[in-house]
Amino acid sequence: MGEDPLKGSTTTTISPAALLTWRRERLAEGGTGASLAWLLDVGGGLSKSAHHGLMLQTHTTAQLSRGLDELTYLWHLHLDQHPLQYLLGLCPWRDLMIHVAPGVLIPRPETELLVDVASQLVNSTPAHPILWADLGTGSGCLALALALACPSSHGLAVDKDSRALAVARQNLKPVAGRVGLLAGNWWQPLQPWQGQLTMVVSNPPYIPTAALDQLDPVVRCHEPQLALDGGADGLQCFRHLLAGVSALAPGGWLVVEHGQGQAPALEQLFAIAGLTTITRHQDLEGNDRFLAGCAPHPWP
Ligand SMILES: C[S@@+](CC[C@H](N)C(=O)[O-])C[C@H]1O[C@@H](n2cnc3c(N)ncnc32)[C@H](O)[C@@H]1O
């Protein structure tokens, strides 16, 4: 990237006319209005509503937290297939601002719903405080949201990748007293808590290896293979997860995110692993994207 023009960034005052011209010039170079609005919001501190307000009140001005030259530089890198989230080191997700960095999966909007499924199950559990785990925590987004949604709980967040653990540590600072971070392979670091976990969430890699080449270059060239590659049929990490479900407390839940079309095969794997009350949950477009299963009470 050469010299970093982002160093020493300053706030800039901008008129609606100047912003409109800059916007037109950038979109003429490529990209989408949604991405440009995202850059202005997260990179320039100009929210969508402030942006709209500015366009309606043509005699006012707005403050940008970065100069237009810097925003243009970031836009050009984005058009060169660099994810904006990595360029800015941030990703808005649920009502949180998650730190991200190359080597760590950028949290996806659909994963936000996994928190709702899991926290509803946790909050309907009679025994509190409970212990939960997030396997393959990446940025720690799920662990942070679950800790905030279930304030009387304690959690453990596991990842194999040291870069992910470093970013997760940063994101989990607000709940550091209630969430432990562990390095290792899926269940292996959780052995001391065998049979004590009331909730385990996971968004494991689930893209079939052969499909990785077809991913959008912005994903394929920048996001970590360890976070994407689900093996030959995309289900390999689920098999590892299901091999360890005896770590669940009787009546405890495993809730996972999966790829589109994987629900029927995954339901069978859940049943073979001995889980009961297997329930599909949908994303906002109505696609089956999450599966929950309960450990029997007691384990057979
Ligand atoms: C799809 S990403 C999910 C990250 C984050 N939970 C999210 O939802 O954005 C999968 C994560 O699993 C981690 N992972 C892959 N294989 C693993 C393994 N064998 N043990 C533990 N974590 C693993 C990756 O490093 C990655 O952070």
Give me some keywords for this one.
300 residues; binds S-adenosylmethionine; two-stranded antiparallel ribbon; disordered N terminus; Rossmann fold; 2 domains; alpha/beta; elongated; 36% helix
Give the percentage of residues in beta strands. Answer: 15-25%
| CATH architecture assignment name of the largest domain | 3-Layer(aba) Sandwich
Ligands bound, unique: S-adenosylmethionine
Counting DSSP E segments of at least 2 residues, the number of strands comes to: 11
Give the CATH class of the largest domain. Alpha Beta
pLDDT averaged over residues? 93
| Spatial shape | elongated
Structural class, judged by helices and strands?
alpha/beta
Give the helices and strands as they follow along the chain: EHHHEHHEEHEHEHEEHHHEHEE
Q: How would you characterize the overall build of this protein?
A:
- It is a single chain.
- This protein has twelve helices and eleven strands.
- The model is unreliable at 1-5 (pLDDT under 50).
- The relative contact order is 0.10.
- Helix 7 links the parallel strand 5 and strand 6 (154-159).
- The longest helix has 14 residues, at 16-29.
- The strands form three sheets. It has a seven-stranded mixed sheet, sandwiched between helices. A two-stranded antiparallel ribbon has the order 1-2.
- It is 36% helix and 20% strand.
- It folds into two domains: 12-80, no CATH class; 109-294, Vaccinia Virus protein VP39 (Rossmann fold).
- It is an alpha/beta fold and 300 residues long.
- Helix 6 packs parallel to helix 7.
- Residues 105, 107, 111, 136-139, 141-142, 158-161, 164, 185-186, 203-205, 226-227 line the site of S-adenosylmethionine.
